[in-house]
Design a protein that fits this description.
Layout lengths: L2 E6 L2 E6 L4 H23 L3 E7 L9 E9 L5 E10 L1 E2 L9 E6 L6 E11 L4 E9 L2 H9 L1 H4 L4 E3 L4 E8 L10 E8 L1 E6 L6 E12 L9 H64 L4
Antiparallel strand pairs: 1-2, 3-4, 4-5, 5-14, 6-7, 7-13, 8-12, 8-14, 9-11, 9-13, 10-11
Length: 289
């Protein structure tokens, strides 16, 4: 007897060719349904996870795992890296005497890193977190006008409107012979760093999410605050001048009083002298020749 064998994932469907076409059609439909189901299971449905391995000093060196989780996009990127890295010359203008190890490179896409860094280093290092500072011309001029009142930030320029604001954190190493720390962080870049320029090697592990960030500059009242401080200073100076004038007037009045007292004393002396003279004249007149 001639038979047709159809096999799929453990299914073995055998039927005589003379059997009903209806049964053959039903078996074929079952084959297609089972295949579709197992295909969906194999792909994991809508939820997918993709990963990429990267290495190199520019991207932080060592082993790196980056991924995006979630179904159909819109998920959050996560970075998990570990490795050993040696320092290089600080790439920022004006910081050439420093040493730096770039763990997470600078992001200028409107997102920040947020996570935890654990490391051990061959020298006491600082943790540097860099943040992009974007100001329009008005904000920049207002900020420049308030430097005397509020001081200045440690920044490094990227272009006319963009700078990097530099946060330097020195963990409390204490008396440990091995500089080590584990700290949370959030910012546009993450480095290890030495201000004194000491070269170093470090082993590190970093776990971070890449999150969208909203820029909010609030320096519109800075010039007003400085103006108010200037007005208050002028008022204080005016009050001090008035007090000084009043003190001078009091001193003048005291001098006048002292002069009047001296005049009275002089007049009294003159009166006493005149009385003494009259008495002497009387005594002389009463004496016989």
């Amino acid at each position: 007897m001639l038979t047709i064998n159809i096999s799929y994932t453990g299914f073995n469907l055998s039927m005589p060719i003379a059997q009903s076409k209806r049964k053959l059609i039903a078996a074929t439909a079952l084959f297609i349904a089972v295949g579709a189901m197992t295909g969906a299971i194999a792909t994991g449905g809508a939820a997918t996870i993709s990963f990429a391995q990267t290495q190199g000093q520019q991207d932080g060196g060592g082993g790196a795992t980056t991924g995006q989780q979630g179904g159909g996009g819109g998920g959050q990127e996560r970075i998990v890296r570990q490795g050993t890295i040696t320092s290089i010359q600080d790439p920022l203008p004006g910081h050439e005497e420093h040493q730096a190890a770039i763990l997470l490179p600078l992001r200028q896409d409107g997102s920040i890193y947020s996570g935890v860094l654990t490391y051990t280093a061959s020298a006491p290092v600082e943790v540097v977190i860099a943040d992009v500072q974007t100001l329009n011309a008005t904000e920049q001029s207002m900020l420049n006008a308030t430097e005397d009142g509020f001081g200045t930030l440690l920044t490094s320029p990227l272009d006319n409107q963009t700078s990097i604001a530099i946060t330097i954190i020195t963990p409390p190493y204490g008396d440990t012979p091995v500089p080590s720390a584990s700290i949370p962080f959030a910012g546009n870049a993450l480095w290890l760093h030495t201000l004194d320029g000491t070269p170093f090697v470090a082993n590190y592990a970093v776990s971070a999410q890449v999150l969208p960030a909203e820029t909010q500059n609030s320096i519109s009242n800075a010039s007003l605050a400085v103006a108010e401080e200037g007005g208050a200073a002028e008022e204080e100076a005016g009050a001090a001048e008035e007090e000084a004038g009043a003190a001078e007037e009091e001193a003048g009045a005291a001098e006048e009083e002292a002069g009047a007292a001296e005049e009275e004393a002089g007049a009294a002396e003159d009166t006493d002298a005149a009385e003494d003279g009259d008495a002497d004249d009387g005594e002389t007149a009463g004496t016989p020749a």
